[in-house]
Design a protein that fits this description.
Layout (H helix, E strand, L loop, with lengths): L18 E3 L8 E9 L5 H11 L4 E9 L3 E5 L2 E4 L3 E13 L6 H4 L1 H15 L8 H17 L1
Antiparallel strand pairs: 1-2, 2-6, 3-6, 4-5
Length: 149
């Protein structure tokens, strides 16, 4: 009898967050591979046990890769970094199909996008204009130089 049996660990109220993400543009819509974002502290056995106990999935293989932290941009004097994470690619015994994307007009998302773009278009031509007193002084200075020449 083996010392460790997979999938028998009881998990009550898990405190880890596993996020299902889209596989990528090259993977067909119906596939038996799923991609998850998991915490870096989880190993393959933990991932397999978690998914088999919580979601009752029959898992064939688990592949993991650690994704490094990336620079997200700079906010003034500080540099922002995205958090590092682990990517788990899980193969299950049946095909998985992503649901169709919801209709944006049904939830009012499209109206919000249109309103934001309308506001941004109104503000597009705005800029800080120089002080008129400084402009007048420069014009007088240029006129004086032209009169001398």
């Amino acid at each position: 009898m083996p010392l460790f049996r997979e999938g028998l660990k009881k998990i009550y109220f898990p405190s880890t967050i596993i996020k299902l993400v889209r596989n990528g543009p090259n993977v067909p819509e119906v596939s038996n591979t799923l991609t998850f974002r998991v915490p870096p502290s989880m190993n393959k056995l933990d991932i397999k046990s978690y998914l088999s106990n919580i979601y009752n999935l029959n898992i064939l293989t688990v592949r993991t890769s650690n994704m490094p932290a990336k620079l997200a941009g700079s906010g003034g004097n500080s540099v922002l970094k995205r958090q590092k994470f682990k990517k788990a690619i899980v193969t299950i015994d049946h095909d998985f199909k992503w649901p169709d994307s919801p209709d944006k007009t049904k939830f009012g998302i499209q109206e919000a996008v249109n309103e934001r773009s309308r506001i941004m278009n109104r503000l597009r031509g705005w800029r800080i204009r120089p002080d008129h007193g400084v402009q007048a002084a420069k014009k007088a200075e240029n006129a004086a130089k032209e009169a001398e020449a």
